[in-house]
Amino acid sequence: MIRRELARRQGLARAVYDAFVQAKELAQQKYLDDAVKQHMGVITPWFSALFEKNRRLLGDDWWPYGVGANRKAIDTFLRYHHEQGLSKRRLTCEDIFVPELLDT
Known about the structure:
The chain is an all-alpha fold. The chain is built from five helices and no strands. The chain has helices spanning about 5, 10-35, 45-60, 65-85, 95.
């Protein structure tokens, strides 16, 4: 979450988002590189089998970032939020994200 006054700075929200995407990609690449070595650094004998099973189940992008990839889940959360009386009106992605992140 970015404070409102910081969100007003042109490009800041996008820069933070891009930094998180880059960090995620680096972490995912490390997992994939370690898979070649049977995840020896983890020291859990069954980790590689679980990792591969999870990849088959969840795909390569098992933790998607961005509004577009998560819009259905966000909209569902916001609907529940409103139905449970936690917000006075039903919010949308456009209400809670800065415009420059809506296309992510």
